[in-house]
Amino acid sequence: MAINWFKYSSPASFYSLAGKLIPIFSVIAFILFAVGLYISFFVAPTDFQQSEAYRIIFIHVPAAWMSMFLYLVMAGWAAIGLAFNTRLSSMIATAIAPTGAMFTFLALWTGALWGKPMWGTWWVWDARLTSELILLFLYIGFMALQAAIDDPRRADKAGAVLALVGVVNIPIIYFSVKWWNTLHQGATVSLTQSPKMATTMLTGMLIMSIACWMYSIALVLIRTRSIILERERHTMWVSELQRAT
Amino acid sequence: MFLWVIQRDLLLAMRQRADVLTTLFFFIIVVSLFPLGVGPEINMLRSMAPGVVWVAALLASMLSLERMFSSDYLDGTLEQMMLSPQPLSLLVLGKALAHWMVTGVPLVLIAPILGVQFDLQTDALSVLAVSLLLGTPVLSLIGAIGAALTLGLRGGGVLVSLLVLPLYIPVLIFGAGAVEASSAGLGADAHLSLLGAFLLASLVLAPWAAAAALRISTE
Question: Which of A53, A90, A99, B55 gets the highest tally of CB atoms within 10 A of its CB?
Fold first, then answer.
């Protein structure tokens, strides 16, 4: 059965598809958060060196992973919107930015909360923390630029150029712990080697990561629906929707 | 055409020398503010000096970015330039280089004098000058992208700063780091090579991104 995926590049059809998908992703996210938080607090054992405070890793690492991942997804959709001149792709990119910024802030904040008991300092200017801070500035710059431009199509394309220029920061964040001698610990989890952390902790962390991912998808879909309604408010299908509700 | 763009921008800048000199004096004043704020303790000033000079160079370079495209945009010359058969990225490269000659080069020339105010030694001063020489063109080139994206927008200089400063940060880190590394005896080669790499990469990529941004901003 061949699905014509391109049908969903029209805001009208995507609107109804998103509406059906949001409950699914929200429920999955909720369940995974419940399971993940249960594992984080009750199942994962007390760490040998860091005692109970290490449990912040179950929020810090998923938030940091999502901050980088969402930026890449945002830049990807923005690039598609710029290259193919599609409205919906840019709307999705605009919808991703606030969630990405939130996760970046969360990663920085929870990192500081971890740093104070563990290393004795809220902040240090090492490569990973600095580049994550730059990532926050890039997200905010993207949102500021789009907010400053009145014409939505120009805002889409200008934001796309900015997002693509900033995408070079992501590999820097990711590889910063390898390239520089930093206070932040190196990679504990890798695609090619066995993980250097206890299995229960790893499972908890992965479940929380997927939970954050499902949450992000649900939230981005909700936000995209709002953006679609706002931008397409002059069309017939939106006015029919308004009359129906 | 490329040389013509540079010549024209330099001529226009010379006719309005006030703009150029204001940027330079802003740089001097900002650098002079720091000792007044943190106190005259000479060892602290000496260790702060590279960072202070570099941050001031960033701010001065950023404040003059609007001049790159806005006056041409307002009187229609930019549109004519975009209609010409020459590639737009070449024109942008010319404008960025002219901007550097007008704002960056005076900074490079005056930075050693300001470094003396902070009691930097001669070799530190020369590394500072070289790092600025390599770094200020990068600031102009990356700044061209920001200036092109925010052409004609309200929010003005602050918006450009918000967009462009995160992209400037690596240049700042390695530029100031070069002087600190040489003062610490580790040698500035690594930092200066990275600055050189930034310069080469931005020479190739920034005009292209800025040209795309110009097309978006002027349609």
Answer: A90
Mutation for testing the B interface, residue in A145, A175, A176 having most B CBs under 10 Å: A145
CB contact under 8 A, A149 and B153: yes
Q: Tell me how far apart the alpha carbons of residues A74 and A80 are, in angstroms, rounded to a whole number.
A: 10
Residue A17 lies in a domain: no
The domain spans of chain B are: 2-217
**CA atoms of B53 and B179, how far apart (whole Å):** 11
Residues B156, B162, B167, B169: what is their CA dihedral angle, to the nearest 10 degrees?
120
- What is the CATH number for A51? 1.20.120
Complex ipTM, two decimals?
A: 0.87
Domain-located, residue A44: yes
B 167-186 residues with CB below 8 A of A? 167, 169-170, 173
Taking the C-alpha atoms of residue B107 and residue B25, their distance in angstroms, rounded to an integer, is 10
Q: Assess if residue A96 is contained within a domain.
A: yes
Query: A49 lies in which domain range?
Result: 25-187+194-244
Residues of A in contact with B153 (CB under 8 A): 148-149
Q: How far apart are CA B17 and CA B37, in angstroms?
A: 30
Kindly state whether residue A238 falls inside one of the protein's structural domains: yes
Chain A interface, Cβ < 8 Å to B: 130, 134, 137-138, 140-141, 144-145, 148-149, 154, 157-158, 161-162, 164-166, 169, 172
Q: What is the pLDDT of residues B24-69, one digit of tens each?
A: 999 999 999 998 999 888 889 988 999 999 999 999 998 888 888 9
**How close, in Å, is residue A233 to chain B by CA atoms?**
23
Tally A–B CB contacts below 8 A: 50
pLDDT in tens, A157-210: 999 999 999 988 788 777 777 777 666 666 666 665 666 677 888 888 999 999
Count: domains in chain A: 1
Q: What is the pTM of this model?
A: 0.90
pLDDT at A185: 66
